[in-house]
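Q: Hi! First time doing this. I have a protein sequence and I read that you can turn it into a structure. Is that right? Here it is:
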Amino acid sequence: MSITTQVLLSAFVITFVMGAVAVKTNFCTMGAVSDVVNMGDTGRLRAWFFAIAVAIAGVLGLQWAGVIDMSLTASNETAIPPYRTAMFAWPRYVLGGLLFGIGMTIGSGCGNKNLLRVGGGNVKSLFTLLAMGVGAYLMLFTNFGYNVFLRWMQPLFVDFSALEVSHQGLPALAARLTGLDEGVLEYGLGGTLALGLAAWAFRSTDFRGRLDNILGGFTVGAAVVAAWFVTAGPWGQQWMEEVEFLDERPIAVGAQALTFVQPSGQFLHWAESGFAATLVSFAMLAALGAVTGAFAYSLLTRAFRLEWFASARDFVNHVAGGFLMGIGGVLGMGCTIGQGVSGASTLALGSFLTLGAIVLGSALTMKFQYYRLVYEAEASVPKALAASLADLRLWPQGLRQLERV
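A: Yes, that's right. Below is the predicted 3D structure, encoded as structure tokens:
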């Protein structure tokens, strides 16, 4: 068995388990935001942040043991995506995160959740994923992303290397500011952040009162760690070395964890090529594993149900949401799992910025939809937007024109 086959099959196995557990525990990042915004329940949000804590702790542990080389994540040549590159592309993190957050709310779930729903028989999610694939394809394999976004964004990027900082990881930035050793800071800051997030999660009965929250968060975080173990460890390094000597190099070879936007665009590219074997990626096998794990669990529990659109508007919302997720996910270099857990596990500043933008975009969209629903014709776009921003304390309360509900 070739090293490429071993790596790709590993992706499938990791996410097969994760997919089954995520369905069982109802792990959902959009649902986590919705629970907080609409009900004040923080259980699933804490499960998401517990997953981040587990991922950070796992990565630090593997680094300490000398098993993985996370320095690979600072270069375009060795990582997909390079979360810790020295080029801090803050406009794409912010706008990409906002677009993704809006899209996942309109489309009833992020990329991972839609994959799980497809495994459970939801045909609506299949259309959402196809629309997401179109958006991701445009960003990955055409000049659309550069012409529409990067052309005007690039002059705003901050090159940390010009400031004598090797990459955008929080320890490197802290080392530059304090003069302390970056290695010590990596374990100090990373360990403190992981412990802090875990403590915050367990502090609430919303989280610790349901075993599913603990199991779901732990499994997602552990799956990300396992992916880093495969791609940034001995197998991954051997994989990168061996493909250099191949006449046809496989697509997307490098250190990577889990992300569920890129594979949708890569799938369309693979189909366009006539299903060339070299275009089957780690991310595509990870997406397939999540769908298959969800499908297996739904069959075992007899929960498999075909679900179709309730109306034409429902169809439009899912397709539009999927397309925005495809655009935003690639622009922001990741999704709720890709940047929110995988990227955060590298302690990259951009990952935390993207994560915040995703949550903001989703929460704002939920508020906006609610005001439009309650006030109907009275809630013009500016009025609903102002009220939504005011609810999130991003706009003066005195300037709102709709009463808070």
